[in-house]
Structure formats: C-alpha cells, structure tokens
Specification:
This protein is mainly α. Helices cover 75% and strands 0% of the residues.
C-alpha cells in the first residue's frame, strides 16, 4: 500500500515541477507577463548567470547520482518513508534547477545560457521520473 501511495506522491511532485515551468513559459511567451520583467545591470546579470550555471552544474549530477550513495540507498531500501523522503530530495534538486533557470531566463534575460540550462534540467528530470518500486512482499 505504501509503495502505491509513495508513487502517487512522487508523480504529483514530478507533474508539479513540469506544470509550474510550463505555466510560466506560456505566460511569458503569450505576452501576459512582460519579458524580461526585472531589469538589472549588466554586471548583476552576469553574476546571476554564473551562479545559475554553478548551481546547475552541481545539482544535476548530484541529483542523478543521489539515490546511489551507499547510506541513502541502504536507508531507502529499508523504509518506504525514507525512500519517499530521499526521492523527493532527488527530484527537488533537479526540479529546483529547472524552475530557477526558467525564472532567470524569462525574468532577467541573461541571454540563452539559462534557457539551455533549463532544457538540460528538463531532460535530467525525465531520467529520475518516478518508477514503480519493486515491492518487498514479493
């Protein structure tokens, strides 16, 4: 029972990240929200772009590898609650970068770098989409 409930929760989180990004893109591309809606100096724009790149470059590999770390894998195999917690953290690492880069791309207009980073985060999110976990009951 817990396995099915966890899977529903994880799919809801997955859909939530995608929905937030799609909604924001539609609002900006349709002209409902002005693009860029926040104007900053060139230097600030540069540093925001650098920070976004650094966060993405660290969060995506960490997110993809997260469930294979020995301690996390051990705890997630024993407890359904721990599995849900760690899988949510894993999805948050990559989904968070997806949302952050989309907001920066449309909000501050740091060139196309954050747009590409958002696409990379989207592809990475597909690799950790919720899967049915084999049940211990057999």
């Amino acid at each position: 029972m817990g396995n099915k409930k966890n899977n529903i929760i994880l799919w809801a989180q997955f859909a939530g990240y995608l929905f937030q990004v799609c909604l924001f893109v539609i609002l900006c591309e349709s002209g409902f929200l002005e693009h860029p809606f926040y104007i900053v100096s060139e230097e600030t724009e540069y540093w925001i772009g650098v920070i976004a790149v650094l966060l993405t470059v660290t969060a995506i590999p960490l997110g993809l590898k997260f469930m294979t770390f020995p301690r996390i894998k051990e705890k997630a195999e024993v407890s359904e609650a721990a599995y849900l917690e760690y899988a949510s953290i894993q999805m948050g690492l990559i989904g968070g970068t997806l949302i952050l880069n989309t907001l920066i791309y449309y909000g501050i207009a740091t060139g196309v770098t954050c747009g590409y980073l958002a696409l990379i985060s989207f592809v990475a999110l597909l690799f950790i989409s919720p899967k049915t976990r084999p049940s211990a009951e057999g």
